[in-house]
Amino acid sequence: MSGVERSRGNLVVIAAPSGAGKTTLVHAVLQREPMLTFSVSYTTRPPRPTEINGEDYVFVDQATFATMRDRGEFLESARVFDHYYGSSRTYIDRLRREGHTVLLEIDWQGAQQIRANEPDSISIFIMPPSRSELERRLRGRATDADAVVQRRLADAVGDMGHWREFDYVVVNDDFDAATDALLSILRGEGEQFATTRPEIVARVETVMAA
Questions:
Q1: Given a cut of 60, is residue 90 above it in pLDDT?
Q2: What does the pLDDT look like over 33-83, one tens digit per residue?
Q3: In angstroms, what CA-CA distances link 92 with 7, 79, 89, 166, 200?
Q4: How many CA atoms lie within 13 A of 40 on its CB side?
Q5: 81-117 burial code (b ≥16 CB/10 A, e <16)
Q6: Cα–Cα distance, 130 to 206 (Å, whole number)
Q7: CB–CB of 193/184 below 8 Å?
């Protein structure tokens, strides 16, 4: 006797410019909604002191990454700050077939590829409260030289220009409120954060100008 067939889980893409607080928000959402599953991406960048291989990222060298990419093993891949990132096609498909809602924390380049390959995916863009606050956050990373901060800031502002490509936008000006907003979207109750809503457009334009 065959078991009950599980419905295919959703694929949710969360993207943001560097310094917007995306990773912290994703961790908070995962803690509050245990039915969500985080897709661990591959990367060629070296691990940070607090990162664990296989939990935060799968760390590989460039040759291994290139081989996997050439074999079509990535659902999406992109180069960000001189390092490569990619999401395993097989891993994500297995999780979705098992009925999991899968979260992908990637950049706008990867999000474009996901939308092309998985048109039923849901995409969310995280915005900082303002460009000035974004710069403050980036400068707060004491390990980065000024030239690195300037480059990251310029790239981040460029990334912000892609917000209209996403289904929803959440401005991370209050952490708890932003977490609640993400959860409401994931539960299918986030219509007020849709990119097409006039109040969201006005809010983002304010962020971009500040």
A1: yes
A2: 988 999 999 999 999 898 999 998 999 999 999 999 999 999 999 888 789
A3: 15, 20, 5, 20, 30
A4: 10
A5: eeebbbbbbebbeebbeeebbbbbbbbbbbbbbbbee
A6: 8
A7: yes
- Token pair for 161: 């220009």
Element (H, E) at 103: strand 101-105
- Give the CATH number of the domain where residue 18 resides: 3.40.50.300
Q: Determine the residue type at 131.
A: R
What is the SS3 assignment for 129? Answer: coil
* Residues spanned by the domain of 202: 11-39+100-209
Taking only the tens place, the pLDDT of each residue in 154-203 is 888 899 999 999 999 999 999 999 999 999 999 999 999 999 999 999 99
Total structural domains in the chain?
1
